[in-house]
Amino acid sequence: MLFRHKTMYYGYKPAQKKHCMLLIIMSFIYKNNVFLQYQMNKIKVLMKRAKYLIVIAFITILLYACNKDNPTPDQQQPAVPQIILDTDICSSTDDLFAMQLLYRYASQGRCNLLGVVVDRMGDTNAAVADLMNNYYGFPTLPIALERNGTYERFCYINYSPIAQLTDGNGNLLFARTYSDYSSILDGYVLYRRLLANSADGSVTIILTGIPSTIANLLTSGADQYSSLSGVELVRRKVKRLYFMATKLEPDNEQNVSPGYNMMMHPVAAHTLLEMWPNDVDVIISPSAPGNMVEYTPEMVISDINWTEIHPLKQIYTQYDCNTGQKMWDPLLPMHEIEGDDLIELSPRGRISLSADNKITFTADPDGNYRYQIAGDEAWAERLLNMIRASSTTPTRMATHTTSMATLSHQTRGIQNIR
Ligand SMILES: [Ca+2]
């Protein structure tokens, strides 16, 4: 006992030794191990403090995990663009080529697709986005649908019936993930979920359609995905927005047409331009650059000569696609993935939309808007060839199993639907 006390005694600092010696003497006088009791009391106090520290650490970890606005353990920028596509699929076919390019870029590891938002109301439009995801090998890519926007106020080519086509055995010609589109999220809700789960400043939005879903995002409030308002969520998470809109050109920047997409929902266009954060870049893709890139129906059908079972080939062979439309929408994903060397940009500026729906671009070095400028014919041919290259070979193994024999039966079904 004495030895143990001596060992402890020598373990103390000089200033504590007097106190310690007193305790040793008391333990002998009262034949009671006062020293050890004293040590035990000290240990108990320390353990009590340690308990508090563990509880505080646990609460801190819990609060961090529950912080929905900071979902990624680190906020490192992803190596490739993180893309949400927002499309008015089922009116023009250029949206389909934008998608085909995105699937290809994603398959090459040059971007990561986060989701597809269908901004044209109607389940049949979501079904075509679904079959596109499946055909190109992305069956789990989330799809959401606009439910507070606009129906097909004007439609160039209504090719949505291709989603319902069946083969000779009664199976869908093109596989789909969903059978009931009432269960998929509203577009702006998917936006909120995807943005909340992304690193700050990492998300690229490619808007090739009507701005109604983005307008609904901007006016949204806190929900189960984020405590931030829609505007603050965009400010924090979005790197850049591409928007196919307007007829802006370098010599035509005052009171110009806002273009088809904005005119399909002018209220939403006003909301977008008025509420979009002025510190998040917007690249407008006007009609002029795309006007120079013409992918004729004959070229499309010829380029997809390696299969008959292909959504674009079916649309181009079964519907009149000779409506004069050009490759407007593909220029957005191409610009994002290929970089600024691909397409000339205007100087920075600001954009306003007047009460009578006219666009004005005002140069301003601190502005967050730029717009694409058309190049020469060689430039247009180069871009066309890049788009054509996405048609000439499969992106991934298609998920369908339909044979050529059943397809010939099916094409009669397409005629009936039309
Ligand atoms: Ca479009």
Characterization of this structure:
40% of the residues are buried. The chain has an eight-stranded mixed sheet, sandwiched between helices. With 418 residues, it is an alpha/beta fold. A hairpin with a 5-residue loop joins strand 8 and strand 9. The N terminus and C terminus are likely disordered. The protein starts with a helix and ends with a helix. It has 16 helices and ten strands. It has two domains: 65 residues, no CATH class; 336 residues, Inosine-uridine Nucleoside N-ribohydrolase, Chain A. It binds calcium ion. Calcium ion binds next to helix 4.
What's the helix and strand layout?
Elements: H1 2-11, H2 14-29, H3 34-66, E1 82-87, H4 94-107, E2 112-120, H5 123-135, E3 143-150, H6 187-196, E4 203-207, H7 212-218, H8 230-237, E5 238-244, H9 260-263, H10 266-275, E6 281-285, H11 287-291, H12 297-303, H13 311-318, H14 331-338, E7 344-345, E8 349-353, E9 359-363, E10 369-373, H15 377-389, H16 404-417
Parallel strand pairs: 1-2, 1-4, 2-3, 4-5, 5-6, 6-10
Antiparallel strand pairs: 7-10, 8-9
The structure holds calcium ion.
Calcium ion (CA) is lined by residues 88, 92, 94-95, 208-209, 329.
